[in-house]
Write a structure and sequence with these properties.
Layout lengths: L5 E6 L9 H9 L3 E8 L14 H19 L5 E5 L13 H17 L3 E5 L3 H4 L1 H16 L5 E5 L26 E4 L2 H11 L8 H15 L2 E6 L12
Parallel strand pairs: 1-2, 1-4, 2-3, 4-5
Antiparallel strand pairs: 5-7, 6-7
Helix pairs in contact: 1-6, 2-6, 3-5
Length: 241
């Protein structure tokens, strides 16, 4: 019997996974064990429509929302690393304490789950969100320091798929399509599961925001989620080939 494949989707906050959600649903449907890994607790993601709830109360709500997302997408149990929201880039003594903590916890998760592949934010963090960009950096560091053979992919959206983007999601940063060489299609059922998962984030999205998100991502995906692979296996004695 072949070993069950394992995929980790590592993001900063519950709701970040929306950008790759139909692919997660697809692989779970095909028998891959898929885990969402959330770096922060989301306690500072205060939204007026949700009554300005903050702190531990909001962190508890967002944890439950992440668990609901996993159920809607058919995934295994999510992993919550529990770092404080918006704390990753804070200057500390010793320097980078939160990032070192994140690195250690990600290393432990990888050693525990033994993933065959990981997906995460690209260097742009989608729209230059600092927590997203720092998760990208630390995930990359952990993978390149690991003795395991792990395929690492960065989510990205081609420039041309953002040309008509309007509304609250128009701030996404595009990637040249030449670098997005991994294009993973998904089924209508996977898209339906993704759409159900959007509605789980009631603390972050109003029903109107969910409509905007659905419209934006459906256009950006155009039936496939695109990724830039980390070319860690390339061997050469020159920087120019």
């Amino acid at each position: 019997m072949s070993k069950q494949r394992v995929l980790l989707a590592i993001f900063a906050h519950t709701d970040d996974e929306t950008v790759v959600s139909p692919v997660l649903a697809r692989y779970a449907r095909e028998g891959v064990r898929v885990h969402l890994v959330y770096a922060t607790d989301g306690r500072h993601g205060v939204r007026g429509h949700f009554g300005n709830v903050s702190g531990k109360e909001l962190a508890d709500v967002r944890r439950e929302e992440g668990e609901n997302v996993a159920r809607e997408l058919g995934l295994a149990e999510p992993i919550f690393l529990g770092l404080e929201d918006s704390s990753l880039g804070q200057f500390t003594n010793p320097t980078g304490h939160a990032l070192r903590d994140l690195s250690g916890k990600l290393h432990e998760a990888i050693e525990d789950k033994k993933p065959d592949a990981i997906v995460t934010w690209g260097a742009d963090g989608g729209y230059f969100h600092p927590d997203h960009c720092l998760v990208h950096t630390v995930v990359t560091q952990v993978v390149q320091a690991s003795e395991r053979q792990i395929r690492l992919f960065y989510f990205g959206i081609a420039h041309e798929r953002l040309q008509n983007a309007k509304g609250p999601f128009s701030g996404f940063v595009g990637t040249d399509a030449r670098y997005l060489t991994v294009r993973v299609p998904f089924s209508d059922a996977d898209l339906a599961a993704a759409r159900r998962s959007f509605a789980c984030h009631q603390s972050q999205f109003t029903p109107e925001t969910v409509k905007h998100l659905d419209r934006f991502l459906t256009q950006a995906w155009s039936g496939e989620v695109t990724f830039r692979p980390w070319f860690g296996e390339h061997e050469s004695d020159t920087l120019f080939s």
